Amino acid sequence: MNWITNYVRPRINSLFSRREVPENLWTKCPECGTMLFHRELSDNLNVCTNCDHHLAISPRGRFAALFDGGVFVEVKVPEPVADPLGFRDQKKYPDRMKAAQKSTAEKEAMLVAEGEIGRTPIVAAAQDFSFMGGSMGMYVGNAIIAAAERAVKLKRPLVLFSAAGGARMQEGILSLMQMPRTTVAVQMLKEARLPYIVVLTHPTTGGVTASYAMLGDIQISEPNALICFAGPRVIEQTIREKLPEGFQRAEYLLEHGMLDRVTHRKKLREELVSILRMLGGLPAPVAGDLPAPGTIAPPTAAGGEPEAQATTP
């Protein structure tokens, strides 16, 4: 061994060796297989730039694009009992919760917030499918009730984005009880004569579809979203027949009268603003994105000095 072997060769190898690339810089489109750069995908609201397939988007990412200036205030949700059944399969339920919280950086499968879209105050709730499949547990039930109560208190519409694999098996019957609980919450909005708009995203299935996800005054869906109670494979195995093309997809449901609109994610905000202002008897919305509430320059007095200091909530 000499200095060429010990020093020169490793030095040359380090200069020409392939650099490691972080795995989260690229995302493969599940529909067309195109590799999408993470910044380009994020700027396009997690919609494939090649085939227009709608990939999953987190509730925070959705709210950042939905609310004026990306500004919103979270609504507090009451905490349920952590592990009411002491459930355990391959892992303990608390361990699964900790893993989901670590991977998503969220407390639970639903986020509730309030803010303005197109200068229209609303309360919004969104499910996170990456958190245990967006499953409906006691926390999700509490979140919808908290959202409905906040909407009634502030006299604002409620916009809900659904994305779930159904009820949470680790909470058993307590999870199924969220179906009537959330139905009562929706009834609170109807009695207060407040709009309840549901945006169904891929996938919305099981007990979520059988309760609050299909009770909206207006039912909108993102393109090609799977919306059903039992999935197509289960139905095919049960009836032993081939299902129609596109069965249980958003476009099929729109054609058969179960949805009001199928709207591209990039046009969804504009459509929601138009619907909300129409239902509220408000003037036509201002075109384009708006700054966050409180960031507009305050009116000036006669002497040119601002009358009040604008603040951001």
From TrEMBL:
It is an enzyme of class 2 (transferase). Keywords: ATP-binding, Cytoplasm, Fatty acid biosynthesis, Fatty acid metabolism, Lipid biosynthesis, Lipid metabolism, Metal-binding, Nucleotide-binding, Transferase, Zinc, Zinc-finger. It is found in: Cytoplasm. A zinc finger (C4-type) spans 29-51. Its cofactor is Zn(2+). Residues 291-313 have a biased composition (Low complexity). Residues 25-294 form the CoA carboxyltransferase N-terminal domain. Its main location: cytoplasm. GO terms for cellular component: acetate CoA-transferase complex. Its EC number is 2.1.3.15. It holds the Pfam family Carboxyl_trans. It catalyses: N(6)-carboxybiotinyl-L-lysyl-[protein] + acetyl-CoA = N(6)-biotinyl-L-lysyl-[protein] + malonyl-CoA. Component of the acetyl coenzyme A carboxylase (ACC) complex. Biotin carboxylase (BC) catalyzes the carboxylation of biotin on its carrier protein (BCCP) and then the CO(2) group is transferred by the transcarboxylase to acetyl-CoA to form malonyl-CoA. Acetyl-CoA carboxylase is a heterohexamer composed of biotin carboxyl carrier protein (AccB), biotin carboxylase (AccC) and two subunits each of ACCase subunit alpha (AccA) and ACCase subunit beta (AccD). Belongs to the AccD/PCCB family. This is Acetyl-coenzyme A carboxylase carboxyl transferase subunit beta. It comes from Paracoccus thiocyanatus.
